[in-house]
Structure formats: C-alpha cells, structure tokens
Amino acid sequence: MPTNRRRWFWTLGLVAAAIGAFGVAGCGRFGCRHGHDPAQRADWIAKKIASELDLNDAQKAKLDLVKQEFLAQREKGKQEREEAFQTILAQIRSKQLDTEKLQALIDRRHKRMEEIAPSVLKKIADFHASLSDEQKEKAAKKFEKFHSYWR
After folding, report:
1. What is the rounded distance in angstroms from the CA atom of residue 55 to the CA atom of residue 66?
2. Domain edges within the chain
3. Using one digit for the tens of pLDDT, what is the confidence trace for 21-65?
4. Among candidates 130, 134, 110, which has minimal Cα distance to 65?
5. Are 138 and 52 contacting, i.e. CB atoms less than 8 angstroms apart?
6. In 3D, which of 129, 107, 140, 138 has the Cα closest to residue 63?
7. Mean pLDDT of 123-135
8. Crossing angle of helices 133-150/38-53, nearest 10°?
9. Percent of the chain at pLDDT above 70?
C-alpha cells in the first residue's frame, strides 16, 4: 500500500476515533437527564433503588446513609480530581509524557480508594444486611442486567 494511502487511512481512523470519543463523552455528560449535580443524581439513584426493591422506611434510611457517605467522600476528593485533571491536561500538551508523574497520579488515586473503601463498604454492608432474600435476588437480577448492558 502506498505511503500516502496509509497516511490517509490513519488520519481517517484518528478522526473516526475522535468523533466516537466525543460522542460517548457527550452522551455521558448530556444523555442522563437526572441532574448534572451529583446530589441530584444520587437522589435519583436512591429513589430508583427504593422503588425497584420496594424498600421500607428503615431500609431507605440505611440507603440514605450510603448515599450521604458517597457524596461526602466525593466532596473530599474534589480538589484532588481537579489537580489530577490539570496534571493530565499538562501532560497531553507536553512534547513527551512523563510516565513517572502519571504513575504517581494513579498511585495517589489507588491510595485514596483504599482510604475511603472501609467507611463506604461498611454502610453498604449495613444496607445489604437489611434487605430480604427476595430484595437481594431482585437486586442481583438488576445487576446482571446492568452488566450485560455495559459489556
């Protein structure tokens, strides 16, 4: 295959990939109409779970604790996410990627996840323990459906 033709295919492939990436990003950002605010999204998700699993008031209270913990941890990590964004943006614009800097960014993210996991998982476990066997099975079926959709 001639070099010009190969270059044309590569250019076309990159353009198609960019359009696809922006399309997916756009759907992720604007496709969900349950509020752009994290608290609004969390409220919508909690209401959906409560409705789908037919939760009683005590279970709804435990689910609300899970939601509040997620939102609290999200707020704590806000500055870290902004710093990570700026670091990645600077790396994209640089002439050469600094893999050590990016690895440090990944390591910090993993450390943060390890720090917050116990408190979040405790609340999730408390909520899970409050569910009946039927509710757990219904939740499992929904999770399987979600998994098959996003595969």
Report:
1. 14
2. 1-31, 37-150
3. 555 555 454 455 556 788 899 899 999 999 998 999 999 999 999
4. 130
5. yes
6. 129
7. 92
8. 130
9. 77
